[in-house]
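Data availability (excerpt). The following record was deposited with the supplementary files.
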Amino acid sequence: MSMMTLPERLRAGEVLYHRAEVMHARTGDFTHRFTYAADYILLNLSAARSKALLARNRFSLYSVYDRDHGGQRGAGEGEAWAWQRFAEAGFAHGEDSVLGLMTQPRFLGFWFNPVSFWCLWQGEDLVAVIAEVNNTFGQRHSYLCHKDDHSAMSATDSVQAHKVFHVSPFQDVEGGYEFRFHLTADHSAIHIRYQAGARGLIATMSGALAPVRARQLVKAALLRPGGALRVVVLIGWQALKLKSKGAAYRSVPPIPQEEISR
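Predicted structure:
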């Protein structure tokens, strides 16, 4: 276990590997539950050190491209976009501020990411998160999460957001989300609860944080081949299961005009 706090590790340029256990449980008119493992990384883009088999803005076994994040899908502005969105929400970019990106990297150049998280620390306090959500229809929308008084978010604090973006073709665009974040020096746990009347969904993503090692990346590639492509296949497989249970398909509505909301 590291003696440094998580923001200290990110300030120092560490790149952290996160084997996340992802769970989705649907409630309401019918139930459906599944779990799978996914490979994420957490890094401070402006300070991160180069790693074997993990590259920034160039091809490798795993890679992170700035254009994949921050703003328009496929033409993102990276951390500059995130800093600006946080500033517009009233969070200063001070000397003790640290911005971390938790994301599923490209695998052999292929990219898809259901959700990435821009995490902002001021000092040692996690004060805001942008959940950057992508659907399988080529669309993106982001949700800004923070407490009304801009104070630190603890593991027990719930932050609400109205659902305005189409994610699952088996759910309407209505209701709202509750987000909870708990990030420590060596562990991450994110809890998202969606509720629309009697229908709902609970999604969690949790696991250890450890320094990226080449052997971890090779092991991940062997155990979960395809990386992001595997996630797309899993999404399609779960959609077939939902359809077989009688879930009604909803057509894709227009994307929200605003790129970020609460």
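Summary of structural features: The two ends are 35 Å apart (CA to CA).
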